[in-house]
């Protein structure tokens, strides 16, 4: 009983696919006959239906692309060969934007202008070696503009640098006295251990 039900469902799906293919073939033939329509956008459909539509478009000699992010919103767009989309047009559709030829022309012109400017910079040659900016400008907000000069004028050398007065020393014994005391402690420990 279950096998019969599965077989019936498979036949029903097959019939639906055949009917869908016939309907798409009719729509594609209408699109081909419509002279003022360079492209046609179809409603969102599932993966199998999109593959059927791509196959029908290929057999008819048309170019087709799928657009959309998730599986539920993907749709197919069919283009006539003489109105094949440019890469910029395809990128616009992939981003979910509507194709605007005037905007595309403006972008193309801006890219050309940027390329010309880059070419002009290359012709001028490399920039002279050296840091791109002065470190003093970078730290001006911290040290000010005249702080370093004022500090240099008032600075005096510390003549006692590195010298420690005897009063600050912890151990005032001589080296010989310290060594004798260490030896005495060592002898005392050895005697206690024996």
From TrEMBL:
SUPFAM superfamilies xref list: R3H domain
GO molecular function: nucleic acid binding
Disordered: region residues: 112-138
Pfam families to which the protein is assigned, alphabetical: R3H
Domain R3H stretches: 18-81
Protein name, as recorded: SPAG7 protein
Gene name for this UniProt entry: Spag7
């Amino acid at each position: 009983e279950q096998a019969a039900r599965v077989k019936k469902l498979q036949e029903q799906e097959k019939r639906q696919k055949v009917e869908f293919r016939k309907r798409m073939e009719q729509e594609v033939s209408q699109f081909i006959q419509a002279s003022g329509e360079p492209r046609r956008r179809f409603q969102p459909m599932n993966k199998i239906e999109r593959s059927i539509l791509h196959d029908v478009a290929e057999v008819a000699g048309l170019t087709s692309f799928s657009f959309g992010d998730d599986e539920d919103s993907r749709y197919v767009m069919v283009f006539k060969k003489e109105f094949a989309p440019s890469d910029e047009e395809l990128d616009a559709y992939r981003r979910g934007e509507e194709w605007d030829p005037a905007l595309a022309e403006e972008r193309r012109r801006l890219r050309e202008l940027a390329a010309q400017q880059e070419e002009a910079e290359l012709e001028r040659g490399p920039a002279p070696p050296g840091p791109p900016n002065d470190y003093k400008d970078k730290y001006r907000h911290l040290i000010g503009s005249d702080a370093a000069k004022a500090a240099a004028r008032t600075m005096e050398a510390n003549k006692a640098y590195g010298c420690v007065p005897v009063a600050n020393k912890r151990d005032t014994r001589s080296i010989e006295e310290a060594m004798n005391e260490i030896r005495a402690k060592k002898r005392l420990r050895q005697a206690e251990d024996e």
